[in-house]
Q: What sequence folds into this?
């Protein structure tokens, strides 16, 4: 089970990075998101359960958001709908890293976020992500 999950998660990570790299043209044309948080340490958040829960609660409208969380919350619907086509390279890498980590280690949080930001399951279907895996 863990091997399958790791494989699926790795495939999703690789596919996401490859797919997102192909959309760099729009960002180069000035249609991208702000770069203000491009150097934000997402690994620090993902490694700390208390901080991660705080950010997830922010994204789920359960708690007020810190500035980075508000930025993510504001762009997340568009980023999901456009498959991160407006993301620059740093944002693509952060998105792929977060997706990979949430799928492997924080699945309940991942699917809570999916219920809000991907209610039809369209994005999950594209990557063949099932909740019961």
A:
């Amino acid at each position: 089970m863990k091997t399958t999950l790791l494989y699926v998660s790795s495939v999703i990570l690789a596919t996401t990075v490859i797919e997102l790299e192909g959309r760099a043209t729009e960002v180069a044309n000035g249609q991208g998101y702000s770069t203000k948080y491009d150097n934000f340490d997402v690994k620090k958040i993902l490694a700390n359960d208390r901080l991660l829960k705080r950010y997830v609660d922010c994204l789920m409208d359960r708690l007020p958001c810190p500035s980075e969380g508000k930025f993510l919350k504001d762009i997340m619907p568009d980023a999901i709908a456009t498959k991160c086509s407006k993301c620059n390279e740093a944002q693509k890498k952060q998105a792929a890293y977060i997706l990979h980590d949430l799928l492997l280690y924080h699945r309940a949080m991942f699917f809570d976020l999916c219920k809000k930001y991907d209610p039809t399951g369209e994005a999950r279907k594209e990557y063949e992500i099932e909740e019961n895996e």
Remarks:
- The two ends are 8 Å apart (CA to CA).
